[in-house]
Amino acid sequence: MNPSQSLPLFPLHSTLLPGAALGLRVFEARYLDLVRECGRNGGTFGVCLILQGEEVGAPAVPAAWGVEALIEDFDVGADGVLVLRLRGARRFHVEKTHVRDNGLVMAQVRWCDPDSDDELHPEHALLGLLLERILEQAGGEFASAGPAQLDQAAWVGWRLAELLPLQEPQRLQVLQENDVHLRLEHLLAWIPGFEAPPETDL
């Protein structure tokens, strides 16, 4: 079983997914301190969807599932606000939380096992084709994805959850599912008019 670890949280009204990029403006003292601390000791923090509360002010109530955020780049905007580019890494489950004096939410988390490298099941092959079409039209950093990635169940699931126009609770539902194939089943059910072909007896 994976050991638990203390991890600072940055609750947001959006869900960070493994492999996905996220831009984040940081201006509150507690989060500026967090970024400085991460810079000094090479640490990371977790992003969780807010279930109750706001991103600023009083500590919000975070979801029990989240993703480790790696800082890929940073800049200072024209208004003087720190802007981070984050990349989603490992999934985790929050076991308990407490709030520091400065309002920062600290969590005791247990890391989830890495995704399997299973290929798409035949009933999910159309999802791979759908993702390929989306990437062709949208461009971006994943536009050059090759057949190996487009046939990997976990990668296809995360990219579709990132790119499809889902509600944040739907993305959270995908995030907390450990089975890579069940994630794809959720996505299939949420795409209007998109159904896998019926099975045929041979």
Query: Overall mean pLDDT score?
Result: 90
- Strand arrangement, largest sheet? 1-3-4-5-6
| Shape call | globular
Number of helices: 6
Task: Please report the total strand number as a whole number.
Answer: 6
Structural class: alpha+beta
End-to-end CA span = 42 Å
The profile of the biggest β sheet is: 5 strands, mixed, barrel
Helix content: 25-40%
| Percentage of β-strand residues | 25-35%
Low-confidence stretches: 196-202
Q: Roughly how many Å is the radius of gyration?
A: 18 Å
Order of helices and strands: EEHEEEEHHHHH
Characterize this entry briefly.
With 202 residues, the protein is of the alpha+beta class.
Explained architecture:
- Helices cover 30% and strands 32% of the residues.
- The model is unreliable at 196-202 (pLDDT under 50).
- The chain has a five-stranded mixed beta barrel with strand order 1-3-4-5-6.
- It has helices at 29-41, 125-138, 147-150, 153-163, 168-175, 180-190; strands at 4-12, 21-26, 45-52, 61-76, 82-99, 105-111.
